[in-house]
Write a structure and sequence with these properties.
heterodimer, A: alpha/beta, Rossmann fold, B: alpha/beta, Pyruvate-ferredoxin Oxidoreductase, domain 3, about 25% strand
Chain lengths: ~575, ~190
C-alpha cells in the first residue's frame, strides 16, 4: 500500500524490513525520528545512549554478536562517534552495521554546517545518499547488504530536506538474517600488529567498492538533452529535476563514497558541458576535476546554505519565479524560550547578577538572545563545563567569582561529566549549573539517563545527578527551583562567593511535557499596571504591551508566575498554586 | 497536471503539523503524488515556521520557492506578510488575524506592523482574513484554529467536503473529532 512517509520514518521502516535487531542512538535534529520511529516496532531493541560514541560502540557490539545493528546521529554527532568509526573501518563487521548521519545545510537547528561526506572519505567507508523517502527505505536495506558483502560499516547520509520531507513509499516484509559470533582476534583486536594487516584490506575493499559503484543501480543515468549534463545527488537532484525536467541529462549519484570513475567519464563523453550540483562542499566536483574533466560547480553555486529550485535556476542563468513584497521591513521572529520555560528564571537571575555565562547545546542556548542576552559562548556538546575550567584558570579568582557555565541534563550526560571530572581533578573554583528540565528538550522530548525512563517510555535506570557530582568530589551541590527567583539569586551568589567548586542543579520539568499541568493563564489588572515594563525583562512570549499596559496572551500563558515576581504593583492576577 | 503548491506558515507551537498531516492524507487519497516538507527543531520554539505541501502528477522538489505558492495558509498575521513573496501572481492567502508579538516587538526593538491585511491587498494579493481564534472558541476549543483554517482553505479547492471529513477522521484522535469537525465547518462556511 502506498503511504506518505517522513524520510526518517522511511529509514526506520527500511531498518525494520532489513531485520535490524539492535539500535542505539543519541537524538539530534534532523536525525531524531529515525530511532523514535524504529522504537515503535516491538521486535526491535532500541535505546537512547548517552552520546553518539557510546551508541556506535554499542551497535558495534551487537553486530559483532551477529545481529544487524544500527545507530543514528546528526552531522556533529558523527564527530563524537568518529573514533569508533575510523577503526571499525579496519575491523569490518560480523552482521551488518549501518549508521545514519543527518546533515543540516542551512543550519535550521545546528551550530555548524559541516559536510559528513568528508567523514566517509576519511574513514574509508561507503556512504549512501537517498533523495526522498522511497530511496531512504530502499537504500537502508541495501546498506546492510553492502555492509555484509564488503565487510564494512556503511553510512547513510540524510539531510534536513530528505529527513523531514514526506513522500510516497511502499512497504515490504521483514526478514531477519543472523550470524553467530566467532572469536577472531586478528580481525577484531586492533593493536598495531593486527591493524597493519587490516589497513591493506581497507584499501583493497575501497577498490572493490569503486568497481561496485560503476554499475550499482543507486548511481543512475537519466539521459535527456545532451547540451548540459548534471552530476547531482540527494535533495539537489530533486531541485535539478524541478528546474530542468528532462531538458538536461543527469547522473544521479546515490553512493556518495566511493565515487565511480568510468561511469562519470562515460557520462561526460555523452554531453557537451558538465556541471556538478551538490550542497555544501565541492566533493563530487573535486573528484570530477581529478579525472581531468572540465566542470562547473562552486564557481556558480554557493558552498554556504541550502539550495532551492530558484537558486539553481538563477545560478544557471535562468529567470527564477518571483513574488510580491511589502515595502516595509517586517520584524524578525527568531525562536524564543517557550512560555513557562524553566530556563527563563535562571537566565534572568544570571543577567541580573552580571555573570559571565559559558553555554552549551540545547533549548537554553536561547539564553543568548535578547532580552535575556546572558550567554557568551556556545561551541559544542559539553564544552561549557570544559571551557569554564580553562577560562577560570586563565583569569583567576576574579573570574571565578562571576563566571558560571550552564548545561542541560541530557547534554551533561552526553559529555559534561568528563569536563566536571577535570574541574574536580585539576581544581578550578568553577560554578557549574545543570539546567535539569528532566528531558532532552530541543530535539522534541527524548528520555535520557537522568529521567528514569527508556525510549519506549518504560521505567529504566536513573542516574542521580546530586550523588554523581558528590562522588566526583564536589561537596557543594545545591538544587534550586528556577520558578523561584529569590532562591535562584541567593544560591548563585553564595556559590560564586565560596572558595570551592560547586554544582547548582536548576530543576523543573520542561513546560511542554505532557505530565506538566498548565495552570490557568494570568491576566493583567490595567488599574494596577504602571507601565514600568519590568515584566518585559524576562522575554516571555505571552506578555506584550497593548495600549501602554502589559497584556497576557491567554492562548500562550501557562501560569508559571515568574512575571508576578517582577511586578512591584501586583498587577498580575489569577495566580494559582501548582495542582 | 502541473504541481500545485500550498504553504502553511505560522509561529512554532501553533499546531501546523496537524494541518499538513491532514492535507497530505487528503491529497494522497485523491490519487496525487505528494510531498510535504516540515522543519523540526530550534524554530519550533516560537520561531517563524513553514510547511510546504506540493501535489500533482509527479513532484520533484520538496520545497516551495518565491513566487510559486498557489495558496498560503497562515496561522498568524505577520507570518502571512512575511511569506507573501512566496505567493504566485494569482495565488490566494488564507490567514488568521491573530497577532503574536515576535521578540523584537516584545523587547521594543521593533513595532508590530499596522494594517497588514490592507497592505497585502494593496500589492494585488488575494487575501482572505478571519478571526480563527473566535471561531475555534465557538467550536469549543481555541486550539482548533488549525481546523478552522483548513475549513476556510477547503473553500478554494474542488475536493468534496466528504473527502475532507474522511481525512479529519483519519488524522484526529477520536475524542477531539467532534470539536475539530465543527471548527472545520465553521471555517468552511465563514
Amino acid at each position: 500500500m502506498k503511504q506518505l512517509m517522513l524520510g526518517n520514518k522511511a529509514v526506520a521502516r527500511g531498518l525494520y524490513e532489513a531485520g535490524v535487531q539492535f539500535a542505539s542512538s543519541y537524538p539530534g535534529t534532523p536525525s531524531t525520528e529515525v530511532t523514535e520511529e524504529l522504537a515503535k516496532y516491538d521486535d526491535v531493541y532500541c535505546e537512547w545512549a548517552p552520546n553518539e560514541k557510546v551508541a556506535m560502540e554499542a551497535a558495534f557490539g551487537a553486530c559483532l554478536a551477529g545481529k544487524r545493528a544500527f545507530c543514528a546521529m546528526k552531522h556533529v554527532g558523527l564527530n563524537v562517534a568518529a573514533d569508533p568509526l575510523y577503526t571499525m573501518s579496519y575491523t569490518g563487521v560480523n552482521a551488518g552495521l549501518v549508521a545514519v548521519v543527518a546533515d543540516d545545510a542551512g543550519m535550521h537547528s545546528s551550530q555548524n554546517e559541516q559536510d559528513s561526506r568528508h567523514h566517509a572519505i576519511a574513514a574509508k567507508v561507503p556512504m549512501l545518499e537517498p533523495s526522498d523517502s522511497a530511496e531512504a527505505l530502499e537504500f537502508t536495506k541495501l546498506a546492510f547488504e553492502i555492509s555484509e558483502e564488503f565487510d564494512t560499516p556503511v553510512l547513510i547520509k540524510m539531510c534536513t530536506r530528505v529527513s523531514h520531507s514526506q513522500s510516497i513509499v511502499e512497504c515490504g516484509e521483514r526478514t531477519v538474517p543472523e550470524k553467530s559470533y566467532e572469536k577472531n582476534i586478528p580481525k577484531y583486536v586492533m593493536m598495531p600488529g593486527n591493524a597493519k594487516k587490516r589497513h591493506p584490506f581497507v584499501e583493497e575493499r575501497t577498490r572493490k567498492l569503486i568497481d561496485y559503484a560503476e554499475s550499482a543501480p543507486v548511481n543512475r543515468v537519466e539521459m535527456g538533452g545532451t547540451g548540459l549534463g548534471i552530476i547531482t545527488s540527494s535533495t539537489s537532484y530533486q531541485y535539478v529535476k524541478e528546474v530542468f525536467g528532462d531538458s538536461v541529462s543527469i547522473l544521479k549519484i546515490g553512493m556518495a563514497n566511493p565515487l565511480p570513475v568510468k561511469l562519470i567519464l562515460d557520462f561526460a563523453s555523452k554531453v557537451d558541458e558538465l556541471a556538478v550540483v551538490e550542497e555544501l562542499d565541492p566533493i563530487m566536483e573535486n573528484h570530477v576535476r581529478q579525472l581531468g574533466l572540465k566542470v562547473r560547480g562552486k564557481d556558480i553555486l554557493p558552498i554556504c546554505g541550502e539550495f532551492s529550485q530558484n537558486l539553481i535556476a538563477e545560478s544557471f542563468g535562468r529567470k527564477p519565479a518571483s513574488g510580491r513584497k511589502l515595502e516595509e521591513t517586517l520584524p524578525m521572529r527568531p525562536p524564543v524560550m517557550c512560555p513557562g520555560c524553566p530556563h527563563r528564571g535562571l537566565f534572568y537571575t544570571l543577567k541580573k547578577l552580571g555573570c559571565t555565562v559559558l553555554g552549551d547545546i540545547g533549548c537554553y542556548t536561547l539564553g543568548a538572545v535578547a532580552p535575556l542576552g546572558s550567554m557568551e559562548m556556545t561551541l559544542c556538546m559539553g564544552a561549557s563545563v570544559s571551557s569554564i575550567h580553562g577560562f577560570n584558570k586563565a583569569l583567576g579568582a576574579e573570574s571565578e567569582s562571576r563566571t558560571v557555565c550552564v548545561i542541560g541534563d541530557s547534554t551533561f550526560m552526553h559529555s559534561g561529566m568528563t569536563g566536571l571530572a577535570n574541574i574536580a581533578y585539576n581544581q578550578s573554583n568553577s560554578t557549574v549549573i545543570i539546567l535539569d528540565n528532566s528531558i532532552t528538550g530541543m530535539t522534541g522530548h527524548q528520555q535520557n539517563p537522568t529521567t528514569g525512563y527508556n525510549i519506549k517510555g518504560d521505567p529504566a535506570g536513573k542516574i542521580d545527578l546530586e550523588a554523581l557530582c558528590r562522588s566526583m568530589g564536589f561537596t557543594r551541590v545545591r538544587v534550586v527551583d528556577p520558578y523561584r527567583l529569590d532562591e535562584c539569586e541567593k544560591t548563585v551568589k553564595e556559590e560564586l562567593a565560596c572558595a570551592e567548586p560547586s554544582v547548582i542543579i536548576s530543576r523543573r520539568p520542561c513546560a511542554l511535557l505532557k505530565y506538566v499541568k498548565r495552570r490557568p493563564p494570568l491576566r493583567v489588572n490595567p488599574e494596577k499596571c504602571k507601565s514600568c515594563k519590568s515584566c518585559m525583562r524576562i522575554g516571555c512570549p505571552a506578555i506584550s504591551m497593548k495600549n501602554g499596559k502589559a497584556h497576557v496572551d491567554e492562548t500562550l500563558c501557562v501560569g508559571c508566575g515568574v512575571c508576578t515576581q517582577l511586578c512591584k504593583f501586583d498587577a498580575f492576577e489569577g495566580m494559582t498554586e501548582e495542582g | 497536471m502541473k504541481t500545485k503548491n500550498i504553504m502553511i506558515v505560522g509561529v512554532g507551537g501553533q499546531g501546523s503539523l496537524l494541518a499538513s498531516k491532514l492535507l497530505g492524507h487528503l491529497l494522497l487519497s485523491e490519487g496525487y503524488d505528494v510531498k510535504v516538507s516540515e522543519v523540526h527543531g530550534m524554530s519550533q520554539r516560537g520561531g517563524s515556521v513553514v510547511t510546504y505541501v506540493r501535489y500533482g502528477d509527479s513532484v520533484a522538489s520538496p520545497v516551495i520557492d518565491e513566487g510559486e505558492a498557489d495558496c498560503i495558509v497562515s496561522f498568524e498575521l505577520l507570518e502571512a506578510a512575511r511569506w507573501l513573496p512566496y505567493l504566485k501572481e494569482d495565488g490566494q492567502i488564507v490567514t488568521n488575524t491573530q497577532q503574536i508579538d515576535p521578540m523584537p516587538v516584545v523587547t521594543g526593538a521593533a513595532a508590530y506592523p499596522e494594517d497588514l491585511v490592507n497592505k497585502m491587498l494593496a500589492t494585488g494579493a488575494r487575501v482572505d482574513a478571519m478571526d480563527c481564534v473566535a471561531l475555534a472558541a465557538e467550536a469549543g476549543n481555541i486550539k482548533a484554529v488549525n481546523l478552522v483554517l483548513l475549513g476556510r482553505l477547503s473553500h478554494y479547492f474542488e475536493f468534496p467536503e466528504e473527502a475532507w471529513m474522511k481525512s479529519i477522521e483519519a488524522c484526529v484522535p477520536p475524542k477531539f473529532l467532534e470539536v475539530n469537525k465543527k471548527a472545520f465547518t465553521l471555517g468552511r462556511n465563514a
